[in-house]
Amino acid sequence: MLTKQEIVDKALELGFEDVGFASAEPFAEHKKLLEEKQGEYGWAEALGLKLLKGTDPANSLPGAKSIVVLLENYYKQGFPRWMEGHFGRCYLDDDRVTKDGLSRKIKEFRKFFSEHEIDTKVPFNLPHRAAAARAGLGTFGKNCLLYANRVARGSSFVLPVAVVVDTEFEPDNSTIEYGCPDWCRNACIAACPTRALKGNGTIDPQKCISYLTYLQEDITPLELREPMGINIFGCDRCQEVCPRNAPWFAQDLPLNPKVTAKEEDFELSKLLHMDREYFEKRIWPHMFYISPDDLWKWKMNVARAIGNTCDRGFVPELIKAFRENEDYRVKGMIAWSLGKLGGKEAESFLRDCRSDSSGLVREEIDRALEGEYDKQSLQKGA
Ligand code: SF4
Ligand code: SF4
Hints:
It contains 21 helices and six strands.
């Protein structure tokens, strides 16, 4: 019979930061919350994420007895600074498609169980953070993230991996609670640019920039374009302002070689002009939530991010992208960005292409020329 200590040793040997044990009881509270908030989470069910089903581990593994929860620190190595400004850190070294990092470790861990005739499942839809708190690995923040109890300097840069097993292990003491210090004045809630955090430890996921960058179905509403800032895929703002993460941020981390190797592929101008082949080969395997059929979302996000860089050096790139794109959402956002960046070159281009444009693109051009986004932009000249 495999002991808990042997399991812990194996997990640490494979490079996981921490490991804990929880019962495989259904996550009744989580289920209730999801049911009450179908208005906010219904989209996830519609997308086939089956979050409600995931609240009972037995739906994934009949005969489920325990959950062994692993903690992976996904920010152990740093990323190029400019990339951290545009992409959520948890996506920068995401190997769920390439299977060349965390996936290998999970596979090895499961193999270890099967060698001891223990059946396992790693359900994607199980409430991983709740499982980690149940296993005593962390507490919640008011930004709805999990903060480690014993590792990663107590930060939120940990990814829980819940392994459901058909053998019973004694559960660890749970820490299902908020761990935020009294003196924190809810920095995360105040800093959330789109007001997604509701102040009671809950979030409206459809207002979160992470959702907005990959699941929006039309051109980003005007009022969200500035708040979404330079984020292109994901957002880390509520983690960056959190004092619980300050100890981790205080370190000089070695750069992640896998991410630096693909750094050039993610340059904004390359993303703005990429074709389907480039996207499928170089981008999608690392950030896969947006399908190649929705390449317009990437380009629109990049155009909006560029508009928020305050860097007029991008104007020629935007003009080139406007000419090479057919999608009205991309063209509309480029017009917005040109208006936002301002300058004579942007203004002259918008005036030139106005008469050949129609519908939403024409409206965006007119608004840009009227300087509605930034009263000072186009008038600033230069
Ligand atoms: S990730 Fe960004 S948008 Fe989402 S809750 Fe945090 S700060 Fe708000
Ligand atoms: S910013 Fe403050 S309230 Fe928000 S998660 Fe961090 S400690 Fe908690």
